[in-house]
Design a protein that fits this description.
The protein is an alpha/beta fold. The chain folds into two domains: 179 residues, Rossmann fold (3-Layer(aba) Sandwich); 61 residues, Helicase, Ruva Protein, domain 3 (Orthogonal Bundle), CATH 1.10.8. The protein is 34% helix and 20% strand. It is built from ten helices and nine strands. A seven-stranded mixed sheet has the order 4-3-2-5-6-9-7. The chain has a two-stranded antiparallel sheet with strand order 1-8. Strand 3, helix 3 and strand 4 form a beta-alpha-beta unit. Helix 4 runs parallel beside helix 6 and helix 7 packs across helix 10.
């Protein structure tokens, strides 16, 4: 597809144009003919074309009407199925089980979109997405590091993740002011520990990280006392960024059972 399309700032459009990076990403995805594949934000088709050549049917989710029109002209409707609309509102699980998700996620909606994908984790085999590098660093961060936070905990609760490829701004048109990275996300096995109440876990994690420099007795004191934390084997003088996912689960499950 032509580069004549004018990138739209409201959609955070930066189109991947570096052939070597494109080839590296497709190799990491390793598409197979019978894969149920969906691409988020196909743009001008840098990844769409090689994926479409590899799979029997490719689904794409695109919000830009001009790009939707180009895609419907460039590909047969039964080969590349175009879903026009906002990826934040799209029901990915509706495409069936064992879904493979790929995409260059718009910077301005990347975090809520990752959480939205997490809601469909049970229907997903894997996810390969490109995001702002600092976001990927936060996603894969380990406890007791400066990048570890709410995003790290809530995504690692649902996915095993690995940063695969660093992508410089020069690989895009127009070139963004930040670097990007590609991350692989694999839904955690069904046997992995699950919270009694996912929503309560999310609220617990959000509250714990609401004031990063404060201790748990300050951030969680309204819902779990220092004495209760100590009873769970968690020092109430610790800060949120030192807790493992298992410890957050312990606190959230205690709150759920106490109700």
């Amino acid at each position: 597809m032509s580069l004549s399309h004018r990138p739209r700032k409201r959609f955070s459009q930066n189109f991947l144009v570096d052939g070597a990076i494109i080839a590296e990403i497709v190799a990491a995805i390793s598409p197979r003919h019978d894969d149920t594949m969906v691409e988020i934000g196909p743009g001008l088709g840098a990844i769409t074309s090689p994926l479409a050549a590899a799979v029997k049917r490719l689904h794409v989710v695109e919000i830009d009407r001009d790009i939707v029109a180009r895609l419907r002209t460039a590909y047969e409707a039964d080969h590349v199925v175009v879903h026009e609309g906002d990826a934040l509102e799209f029901d990915f699980a509706s495409l069936g089980p064992d879904l493979r998700v790929v995409g260059n996620l718009p910077y301005h909606i990347s975090t809520p979109l990752l959480f939205h994908l997490g809601e469909s984790a049970g229907a997903i085999r894997d996810i390969h997405v490109m995001l702002q590098k600092e976001v990927v660093d936060r996603m894969v961060a380990q406890p007791d590091s400066s990048d570890y936070g709410r995003l790290s905990v809530m995504l690692q609760y649902r996915f095993d993740m690995e940063k695969l490829i660093d992508v410089p701004g020069s690989a895009f048109h127009p070139s963004p002011k930040v670097d990007s990275a590609v991350v692989r996300m694999l839904p955690r096995h069904a046997s992995a520990a699950r919270a009694v109440d996912d929503a309560l876990l999310e609220r617990t994690v959000a509250a714990a990280f609401s004031q990063r420099r404060k201790t748990l007795r300050n951030t969680l004191g309204d819902t779990v006392s220092a004495e209760e934390l100590e009873g769970l084997g968690i020092d109430s003088r610790r800060r949120a960024q030192t807790l493992s996912i298992a410890e957050f689960l312990k606190i959230a499950d205690y709150r759920a059972q106490r109700r």
